[in-house]
Each structure stands twice: as structure tokens, then as C-alpha cells.
Amino acid sequence: MLQNRSELLFLYDVQWANPNGDPVDENKPRIDEETGRNIVTDVRLKRTIRDYLHDFCHQEIFVREIAGENEYIQDAKTRAEDFLVKDGKKLDKSKLSLAEMKQIINEEILRQCIDVRLFGVTLPIEKNSKEKSSITHTGPVQFKMGQSLHAVKLEYIKGTGAFASGSRMMQKTFREEYVLPYSLIAFYGVINEAAASYTKLTEEDVQLLLDAMWNGTKNLISRSKVGQIPRLLLRVVYKEKHFHIGELDKYISLHSEKVDEEIRDVSDYTLDTAPLIRAMEKQKEKIERVEIKTDDRLVCSEDIIESLKTAGIPVEIK
Q1: Is the Cβ–Cβ distance between 184 and 266 less than 8 Å?
Q2: Alpha helices of the chain — where are they, by DSSP H?
Q3: Euclidean distance between CA atoms 180 and 261, whole angstroms
Q4: For the segment 218-253, what is each residue's pLDDT rounded down to a tens digit?
Q5: Are strands 89-90 and 85-86 parallel, antiparallel or unpaired?
Q6: This prediction's pTM
């Protein structure tokens, strides 16, 4: 079982893409109107992680789209009953009490579903129309909304579709979309050891999470996401109980000769990591180790790995 708290800092970038469209605003990339910075929801990142864990790592996840024989998509109640099993056999809920149903489903979901151990869950349990309850687990892994480290430019693109809008039409339809020429997005997260004890999160689960953050982002090869590249993944593991530095994303910034909206590539700036390294150095007695993975094209103000080692902080390169 996971014993120590840790913090996560994850950077990735996109070029001429839409990292997280807003369905209530023409699917435009989400932008903070006050700062001009791009916003990506934690739900988007968790979807990326879940899909990679399921499709590439062959891990069971609870939150996924499953259609029945009639092609209707399962609701949460039906999905929960997929885990009403014992020794691999489906149980008849009419022969169980509501309390027994909850216990069996809870144990099976925590045993089988890595996304529940990571992110928690709230799911309805229903024996019949009169006997209903629910199961709730707070996720040990929580991310803030992702935010670009610079103001972005929104581009509107209009093109010609392949087909006419209807029969007996001479003209093809038009397609419209909004993209960002460039966005370097930072996600900050915490892995809470107290919540982990309830969802039975393990260190092996956390290593799969890190793999999914990096490789899931890179392998999200859809038309709107192709070209996403992970640039930096850092995990600070603490040895002091119930302690973390907090908001690691506020200790980094971009330095560029270009104005924010003109940045088009990772080579257009330097990532200033000095405040982050100084913050960790200040708390080094409370840090067990730092796990880190970097992309070769990312240029930082100083060598993070060597600086941490010089400060006496154990470093594990991923």
C-alpha cells in the first residue's frame, strides 16, 4: 500500500491542435478570458490516462463506454453490476441484501479497476426500485485544471468538406474549427496517502499512472490531438508524513524573446526552473526522492537533475 504523499508536475505541448474543446462554446479550445491562457480540464487528462491504461496496458477501468447488444450505452448502475461477481460467476442480486451487494461490488471494483484506485468513484447501487444506495471513494490522485504557461492565440480555420449537405446539391459543405498554434500546458497534482489507504492504491499503480501520463499523452493520436508531446514529468516523493510543498506549477515560468502569442515551438523559449529547484532544496530533509522524465528538446534554465543531485536530493530518472 502507498505510504508517502507525493506531488506531480506534468508539462506537455500542442501545435495547431485543440487540446480540450468546450462543447458549450462551439468546441473552441478553453481560454481564460482574463489571462489569455489555455485551460485543459483535469477530466481530459484523466480520460487520456484511463484510455492508455485500458488500451495499451490492458488494465481494467470502471469509467469506459460499453454498449449492450441493443447498442445502448451502459449507465453507471448497470456498469456497477458488472462487478457483482464471485469466483468469476455473476451473482443474482434478488438473492442478496442491498448491504451484501454493496460489499461485493465495492471489493471487486477496488480489486479490478485501477482508475477507481487512482481517481475514486461515486456509483449508484440499486437492488430494486425501493432499495437503493451508493458507493463513494475520494480519489487519492487529484489534479488542478491544467493551464498554459503563456497567453495563447486562437485561430479560426474554415475548409471544404468532402460531401454535399444533401441530395441534388452541387456544392460541398464547409467545415469550421478553432485551434491553437501553440500551447505549453502545465498540470499540477497531489497523491494523497490517506485516501490511498481507502482505495488500496499501490506504488505499482502510481508507476502505471506516470507511464500513462507520458505515453498516453503522446499516443492520443486523434485529428484534434495529434502531435501532443510530453516535455517534463516530475514526481516529488516525501518522507515526512502529511507534508507537501504545494502548487509546484507556480515555481516555473517561460522566458522568451517572443511575445506569448507568437510562440510556436518548444525551441522558442527557456523554461525557468530555478525557483522550483530552490523550493525543493529548502525542503530537502522532507523529500525521499524526485522521479523525473524530460524530453530532449526542452531547454531549462539549469540542469534539473544535476542541480537536485548537487543539493543532496536523490533523483530517479525515468
Answers
A1: yes
A2: 42-55, 76-81, 98-112, 114-119, 193-199, 203-218, 274-282, 304-310
A3: 10
A4: 998 888 888 899 999 999 999 998 999 999 999 999
A5: antiparallel
A6: 0.93
